[in-house]
Structure formats: structure tokens, C-alpha cells
Amino acid sequence: MQDPERTALRASVELLHKCQAVFLHNVIVWVTSGSVTIRRDVAVFELRGDRAQAPLAYAWTDPLPGDRTFHHQVVLHQGVVTSAQHAVAGFFLTESSV
Asked: Which pTM value belongs to this model?
């Protein structure tokens, strides 16, 4: 993951959750559903401040269909989401079942 993408993801996390986000590391996540496998480079951020709703946030970019732009996905580390793998899998499986 390049610095400009990481910076943009950090800004998205901070804007959405109104707290400071500190980059910790990134991890490559593979998720398979049926015959479809996706790969995401997920940035892991520590959330700081009184308004932090969770200890961590997982963020990545998804390409928009038929376009050259990307959408930022942000999932908090809370409830059943306890890893980057859970964040991407839960998001991907929810989106594909709609």
C-alpha cells in the first residue's frame, strides 16, 4: 500500500468516526465466497480520543464497477469483527448477499 492511499484511508477513518487514527500496519486479506475470491490490502489503524468507538479500524479501497474510481471501506474492530479478515469477509459476504 502506497503512502497516498494510506493517507486517504486515514482521513476517511477520522472523518467518519471523529477521532484520531494512527496507522499501525497493513495486511493482505483473501476472502472466498463460492467461486469468487477477492484480495484486499487492508490498513489497520488505532483509534484515539474520547470519541473513539473501538480500539481499531480496518480500511481498504474497493473499485467502483465500471469506473476508474475507488470507494473507501471502513469497519470498526468491535462485536464479531476481531481481525482484518473478519472485516473484509463480513463486508464482502453482506454485499454479495443483497
From this structure: 0.87
